[in-house]
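Lab notebook, page 48
Experiment: co-folding of the full assembly
Goal: obtain a model of how the components sit together before planning crosslinking
Operator: M.T.
Materials (sequences as entered):
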Amino acid sequence: MKIEIYPKSKLENTGHEIESPYIRLKSVNKMPEYWDPEIETMPVEDLRKLQEKKLKELVHYVYENSPFYRKRFDEYGVGPEDIQTLEDVRKLPFTFKQDLRDTYPTGMFCVPNSKLVRFHASSGTTGKPTVVGYTQKDIDEWAESLARAFTSVGVGKDDILQVSYGYGLFTGGLGAHYGSEKLGSTVLPTSSGNTERQLELMKDLGTTAIACTPSYFLYMIETARKMGINIRDETKLKMGFFGAEPWSEELKKRIEDESGIKAYDIYGTSELSGPLFTECSEQCGIHVWADKFMVEILDPETGEPVSDGVSGELVITTLTKEALPLIRYRVKDLTRKLSEPCKCGRTHPRITRISGRSDDMIIVRGINVFPGQVESVLMNIPEVGNHFMIIIDRIGPLDSIKVQIEMHESAFSDRVSDMMALKKKIAGALKSVLSLAVEVELVEHGYLPRSEGKSKKVIDNRKF
Amino acid sequence: MGAGMEDKIIKQISLFAENKPGRLANVTNKLKSAGINIRAFTIAESGDFGIIRMVVDNSDYAYNVLHNAGFTVSETSVLGIEMEDVPGSMSRIAEVFGKAKINLDYAYAFVTRAQKALLIVRVNDIEKAIKTLEEDNIKLIDMKELEKI
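Observation: model returned without errors.
Model output:
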């Protein structure tokens, strides 16, 4: 056991007579412990040296073990010996998702099959699926990364984590599962789907934390309501880890308001292993463990680094992976890096909520639109329900953008003029942010698809 | 609301529906299986959506049935004005409203079996409307009477 959450001696000062471990966590408003205090609070300069050492080892490792990287380095005119400092990382070539596709299924692996203990495959949201392999050490490091993260928001051995991410080829389910087991909290491996049964188990077993996509949790809230279960009062759920799809601050607020839980952002991609990092209890960015991953934020157009705190494309180098290490992997997610040590005491850099994927950008009449922008606008309008769909069409030579919305029942008026005014209000709010005229269509409750995994928020009917 | 006014108000069921084939059947099927009888009915159409307005014999029950089936539905307070089924009846009502500066949000009418006509209206000031109509001796139908029509 590495940590002890809230030992008795610390509780005595609070003056509370507390029995249940669950209530203990809620009422003792105290900083959660660290999973690995030495690493997590390591002085920035030491962390830098550690990264530098690992980076140097990594370039030798991939050059010797990956024919793909050896060839790529040779073509690029760079060798392992050229990498002496952290800044030298910029001498290295990028790795793209397309490289994983081109070498499908295992052409980029650095170890033989005998060393692999598991495969996962990406969902192929943006094309052909990619295959990821893991050694035992890779699995352990992955689980440890999440164990640190879960600990940073106060999840401990007394907690029950319901993993409602899909299990199987998708990394979400098994990733959260192993992280939670490593930590010693109890896993309820429901996977996604079978929502009514999930909610019954949540209530009966006393789930305290959940991990799933934000859109699936919205569906759970809706289903709970239909079943007459009040998540806030009738379950012990107090927090959720939501990710695997971009989601906005506004949606987070809605989830918290409607369910009474704390919503934390969880981040990772299958190529890097799966879900790896979360916010800490300070909720000011997602901690990226610097002893395992090196973060660069680059201007997506020029590939040049942007300053701390400026938005750009996330580029990650894996420092400890054995089976499928990646050099300067262009994740395509847009975020900002915050290098200042966090108030929680952790010195590892943070990245802010993913504002979108550069791949997700839609160009409508020459204007760039991110689904996340649309979500932010809509979730700020109280009359708008939790689901929406963006539909792009081309009528004649012109693109058209339409947003379908289910309104809240309380916003319904039987006067046509009120409904027209609501449509106008929504269209106006969208226009002010997107600089684009958007048609708003009100649809019946339940019309828009509910998602059990990654939700689809855009239908592009244009033929290019 | 003034004493006795509640009795004069009819609860209309209002329902949001997409303007697509089969949507109305969806609604009426639910009412059919719940044994709810429609007394008055109209649809206001506005491009991609419509608003169904109806007066039924048991509005609270109908609201619950439709709400639980997932429809976006509300109960709206409207007035049921009884008129003689003769020329000039509607004109008289309209004049009363006009004089009192009461605005109609919408109205629809039908003829009953008892040689009367019934006008359903939603107004901007329902209390004032009830008072004005009563002063002019115009009869308002309540929920109980409506069930008998």
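Interpretation: The radius of gyration of chain B is 16 Å.
Next step: discuss with group before ordering constructs.
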